[in-house]
Amino acid sequence: MNRYKLFLTLLASLSFTACDMNQNMHQNMHALSSNKEGSGARVIAASNGCMGCHAVSNKIIGPAWKKVSERYKDIPDAKIKLIAKIKSGGKGNWLRETKGKTMPGYEGKMSDEEITTIVDYILALDEARQN
Ligand code: HEC
């Protein structure tokens, strides 16, 4: 095999490997985002730093997500309101729990899909009562 052929063979096998990896990554991402038990949401929340200030059952700096779920369960457009709040950040809705601390805004740092996945997960916590 001359050098040129060897180079081509190497190149071809490299690009096959890259394709396989891409395919696997795609499947993993898909599995994460479609997992019904909310582990997709938990991975997104953890990797975006939400859990530095939030936990499901206790107040950290921000309110417990179960409390958020309870408060918003009968509020019309709860989903739209919470998506907007995560994008813009802000303070004032949880004065007593947070002593007026501010939630940072995530507009441009997370996709709409990621934010929606987390909000669906938070709003379902009240009904699920599994944690
Ligand atoms: C630096 C701390 C901090 C981080 C990081 C943080 N939060 Fe918050 N979060 C807060 C505080 C403080 C509040 C209370 C805001 C208020 O009183 O209106 C809050 C409130 C909330 C609420 C309730 C909103 C409302 O108006 O009732 C939701 C939902 C929420 N956070 C989700 C998230 C998500 C999702 C992330 C990650 C993408 C996140 N938070 C990251 C501090 C934080």
Considering DSSP H and I runs of 4 or more, what fraction of the residues is helical? Answer: 55-70%
For this structure, the CATH topology of the largest domain is Cytochrome Bc1 Complex, Chain D, domain 2
The computed structural class is mainly alpha
Write down the overall mean pLDDT: 83
Taking the alpha carbons of the first and last residues, their distance comes to 62 Å
Specify the CATH homologous superfamily of the largest domain.
Answer: Cytochrome c-like domain
Globally, the shape reads elongated
CATH architecture of the largest domain: Orthogonal Bundle
TL;DR?
By secondary structure, the chain is an all-alpha fold. The chain has helices at 3-34, 39-47, 65-72, 78-88, 95-98, 112-128. The termini are far apart.
Topology:
Elements: H1 3-34, H2 39-47, H3 65-72, H4 78-88, H5 95-98, H6 112-128
Helix pairs in contact: 1-2, 2-6, 3-6, 4-6
The structure holds heme C.
Heme C is lined by residues 45, 48-50, 52-54, 61-63, 68, 82, 85-86, 90-94, 98, 101-104, 106, 118, 122.
Describe the 3D structure:
This protein has 131 residues and is mainly α. α2 (39-47) packs across α6 (112-128), α3 crosses α6 and α4 crosses α6 (112-128). It folds into two domains: 1-34; 38-128, Cytochrome c-like domain (Cytochrome Bc1 Complex, Chain D, domain 2), CATH 1.10.760.10. It has six helices and no strands. The relative contact order is 0.13. The protein starts with a helix and ends with a helix. The structure holds heme C (HEC).
